[in-house]
Automatic annotation (TrEMBL), chain B:
Organism: Streptantibioticus ferralitis
Pfam family, one: ABC2_membrane
Keywords: Membrane, Transmembrane, Transmembrane helix
Stated name of the protein: ABC transporter permease
Membrane topology: Multi-pass membrane protein
Keyword Membrane in annotation: yes
From TrEMBL, chain C:
UniProt topology in membrane: Peripheral membrane protein
Domain of life of the organism encoding this protein: Bacteria
GO molecular function: ATP binding
Domain ABC transporter: residue ranges: 6-244
Entry's localization field: Cell membrane
Keyword list, A-Z: Antibiotic resistance, ATP-binding, Nucleotide-binding, Transport
InterPro entries assigned: AAA+_ATPase (IPR003593), ABC_transporter-like_ATP-bd (IPR003439), ABC_transporter_ATP-binding (IPR050763), P-loop_NTPase (IPR027417)
UniProt name for this protein: ABC transporter ATP-binding protein
PANTHER family associated with the record: ABC TRANSPORTER ATP-BINDING PROTEIN, ABC TRANSPORTER ATP-BINDING PROTEIN NATA
Length: 275, 257, 319
């Protein structure tokens, strides 16, 4: 038996490319049945526009154009994190449908499959962020430069991936505690929205919270985007942006470890299937 | 009266169920985070006149979020548990059960006002003074009623729609803006104002802020408007729910085509 | 007004086409049914026969397309409120209760829906909990109970309004044999309280054991209504005689007599069954066997199961 156990444990860490492609394809297929372009525009995009406008309008209340811009940029960038962490629900659904049991016993190891699932949210998140940012900067009469906006795109992608790994780690928690997925998702993306320099600079918070903000998604990427949009030095922006994927790798490791623990303990207690 | 008994029993049922699944009260976890976001912006910019705008905004947001959540799930849940038929076949009205359950959740959601106050007072050390306690308390009571009425209307509406999640999502932030929870609707473009005035939250938000200012003119009739809007929601909701019941008995399925 | 507990005339129900079911479907096609008060009336039929549709119409959760149905004298469409206060419905599924809360909380809730005041509702709840034997588990959540126990909660729920008419829709489906037996015993007791039951079931033994009358429906039409004891006589099948025989001579003689359709061996070795061609020939068969010195013989009408099989074939038996 011990020999048999070796294989999955070993592959646990190694993404299998074929499976990864397949599970991304499956994710996109599920995504397309859920979202049509019209539904996206009428439902989701209206909501995210309103979300960013809502926060930006606090700047109007404060009679400060700078505040409008600060809040607008921060909250538009936070959208990619919000959408990417939706992977929490994907994982909960996996458990609910009973497919998790099948994944856990398949030879590739579930991490490969789960890494691929939900990546679609990263892509739509980047689109939501970029479109909202552009549109609302115009609506609120702010200056914007096309090169600056284009420069933001790769950073948004980095934030999306980091958030995806962060969301996957959170998703592992929902496996152990059913029916908490919405709670975990909401608290999950609201933490960076609060602490990561979205509404106020990280330095506003007391030292322990400011330190905590360093390991959340968004913090470093957003700092880089603010530098880029304000025409700051490129090397400075690159340095900040480089920290974002490092945070992401950290969450990936935590997520994979948590995931394995959850599956193992669920298997022991026999609670991997429906409830 | 029996209808009151049904409402009370449904209320108790909802409390018992919520105790089993506390995660349903998501807003109790998210409202302090909203408070942290709003208060941090206000505190950093240090304008004391707008501080009051932020104090109870998280509670108002949570109330509306809860209405959407409740409205979307209430009748579908009975359907999934296969209790809907039992309810329809009983001598009591489904609307009374729905309203009773909603009241329970609204009562629990009122805790977000306490959370908002605690966050402002103890965590952010702000000087929160409720100048007109009577106005504040009356606003709270009437707003909770209006929210329950509106949630009942949403419960009737959402059963008829197929993509509930999408509706729920798209009705959050746009309505936080229309409800003037943080930025008063008087600051919105003029064409948007009439729309906001049929939404109870826009009046409630103004009243909450008024109760924290020295002058609170015309609060009585504003309260009346909130109550009327809430009652309209309730009546509309009960009518819609009766329509749902009729449809189920006619087609043999609660599934909406 | 009639004295019947249930009176159904020309009842039709058509489900309109919709998403997921592209064609309109006739679930009931002109059913007539009388249920005499104070007894258990069995409603038999394979899956999809229309049993559940009929129960839904009688319990006012579904409207008929055509025809009339009265329960305890009240029309299910015109006077549905009068019907609702007088009936109880027991569904045979694990769902249909609030699984996350206790047995007691469930019953208290339904008590209020049936118009019982707080004190009366509490009293009735405790009484029923005792009655269905769940006193020890009353504070447990429904999701923690076994299937058999959940079924008792369903029964208690159905009885909460002290109904004179109770509809039981497949109440023992999926129960283990012991739980099913307990459930039937409980029904027997409830019958003694003067209630009327309409029981839909697949289980012919259950119907034979519990019901005074049975109705067989299939594909939305009524095939037969009969007293359970007389059910065999409704069948145009010949009567049978069972006997013990030690040698084949007798069997040969019978087969050659022209009096029987056939002779078959029963489960027990040496025991045989002869099917007479008619009532008249049955007498001759018995005489023939007696002349051969066979005394251990008995005649029996076909059982409910055989009647059912003849009526609807073996569809619906494997459940």
């Amino acid at each position: 038996m011990s020999g048999m156990n070796q294989a999955p444990t070993h592959r646990f860490w190694l993404p299998n490319r074929g499976v990864l492609v397949q599970s991304i394809a499956l994710g996109i297929a599920e995504f397309r049945t859920f979202y049509t372009l019209r539904a996206w525009l009428a439902g989701w995009f209206v909501r995210v526009l309103a979300q960013v406008a809502f926060f930006a309008s606090i700047g109007l209340l404060l009679h400060s154009k700078d505040q409008v811009r600060y809040l607008l940029v921060g909250n538009a960038v936070a959208l990619v994190c919000l959408e990417a962490t939706v992977v929490v629900l994907t994982m909960a659904a996996e458990r609910f449908q009973g497919t998790l049991e099948l994944l856990a016993t398949s030879p590739v190891g579930p991490v490969t499959v789960l890494l691929g699932r939900g990546l679609n949210w990263v892509l739509t998140g980047v689109v939501s962020s970029a479109l909202t940012l552009t549109l609302l900067l115009l609506v609120f009469g702010q200056t914007l430069s096309v090169p600056g906006l284009l420069g933001c795109l790769p950073v948004l992608l980095l934030i999306g991936l980091t958030s995806h790994f962060y969301g996957s780690a959170l998703g592992a928690i929902t496996l152990r505690f059913p029916r908490v997925e919405w709670m975990v998702l909401n608290v999950g993306f609201m933490m960076p929205m609060t602490l990561s320099g979205v509404n106020v600079p990280v330095s506003f918070w007391p030292t322990p919270l400011a330190a905590l903000a360093q390991v959340f998604p968004v913090t470093h990427g957003l700092a880089a985007i603010r530098t880029i949009l304000s025409g700051g030095s490129m090397s400075h922006a690159l340095g900040q942006a480089a920290l974002e994927p490092m945070v992401g790798m950290g969450w990936l490791v935590i997520g994979a470890l948590l995931y394995r623990r959850m599956v193992e303990s669920s298997r022991r207690r026999g609670s991997l299937g429906l409830f | 009266m029996n209808i009151l008994r049904v409402i009370a029993a449904s209320c108790r049922m909802q409390v018992a169920e919520t105790r089993r699944v506390p995660a349903q009260m998501l807003i109790l976890a998210t409202s302090p985070l909203f408070a942290a976001m709003f208060l941090s912006v206000m505190k950093r910019n240090g304008d004391p006149t707008v501080l009051t705008n932020a104090v109870f905004a998280p509670a108002l947001i949570s109330l509306w979020f809860m209405s959407l959540d409740l409205g979307g799930g209430m009748i579908s849940n009975e359907r999934w548990q296969a209790t809907l038929e039992g309810l329809i076949g009983s001598p009591s009205r489904l609307g009374a059960v729905v309203f009773g359950r909603i009241i329970a959740v609204v009562g629990l959601a009122a805790l977000t006002f306490v959370e908002s106050y605690v966050m402002a007072r103890l965590v952010f050390r702000m000087d929160v003074r409720i100048v007109h306690p009577l106005v504040f308390v009356l606003t709270l009571v009437v707003t909770l009623f209006a929210m329950a009425g509106t949630a009942t209307a949403l419960a009737g509406l959402f059963v008829l729609s197929r993509n509930v999640l999408l509706f729920q999502n798209s009705m959050t932030y746009p309505f936080y803006i229309l409800g003037g929870v943080l930025v008063p609707v008087s600051l919105l473009p003029f064409w948007a104002q009439p729309v906001t005035r049929v939404f109870f939250l826009s009046w409630s938000s103004d009243l909450v802020r008024a109760s924290m200012r020295t002058d609170a003119p015309g609060w009585a009739w504003q309260l009346a408007v909130v109550a009327v809007l809430g009652a309209a929601g309730l009546v509309g909701g009960l009518v819609l729910i009766e329509r749902v019941v009729r449809r189920v008995t006619a087609t043999g399925s609660a599934a909406m085509a | 007004m009639t004295d019947l507990a249930v009176e159904v005339r020309g009842l039709r129900r058509v489900y309109q086409a919709r998403r997921g079911a592209p064609e309109a479907r006739t679930a009931l096609d002109g059913i007539d049914l009388d249920v005499v008060p104070g007894q258990i009336h069995g409603l038999l039929g394979p899956n999809g026969a229309g049993k559940t549709t009929l129960v839904k119409i009688l319990s006012t959760v579904l409207l008929p397309t055509e025809g009339t149905a009265r329960v305890l004298g009240y029309d299910v469409v015109e006077h549905r409120q009068d019907v609702r206060t007088r009936i109880g419905t027991v569904f045979g599924s694990e769902r249909g209760l609030y699984a996350r809360v206790s047995v007691r909380r469930n019953l208290l809730f339904w008590a209020s829906l049936y118009g019982l005041s707080g004190r009366v509702g509490r009293h009735r709840t405790e009484q029923l909990i005792e009655r269905v034997g769940l006193a020890e588990r009353a504070d447990d959540r429904v999701e923690e109970l076994s299937k058999g126990m959940v079924q008792r909660v369903h029964l208690a729920r159905g009885l909460i309004g002290d109904p004179r008419m109770v509809f039981l829709d497949e109440p023992t489906t999926g129960l283990d044999p012991v739980a099913a037996l307990d459930f039937r015993a409980l029904l027997g007791e409830l019958l003694a309280e003067g209630r009327t039951f309409l029981l839909t079931t697949h289980d012919l033994d259950e119907a034979a054991a519990l019901c005074a009358e049975v109705t067989v429906i299939d594909r939305g039409t009524l095939l037969m209504t009969s007293n359970v004891r007389d059910v065999g006589r409704r069948l145009a099948a010949p009567d049978r005689v069972d006997f013990d025989a030690e040698d084949n001579m007798v069997l040969e003689k019978l087969r050659g007599s022209g009096l029987v359709n056939g002779v078959s061996e029963l489960d027990k070795p040496g025991r045989y069954r002869a099917e007479a061609t008619s009532k008249e020939s049955l007498t001759s068969v018995i005489r023939l066997l007696a002349d051969e010195g066979i005394t251990s013989l008995s005649t029996s009408p076909p059982t409910l199961e055989e009647v059912y099989l003849q009526l609807v074939g073996d569809r619906g038996m494997a459940v």
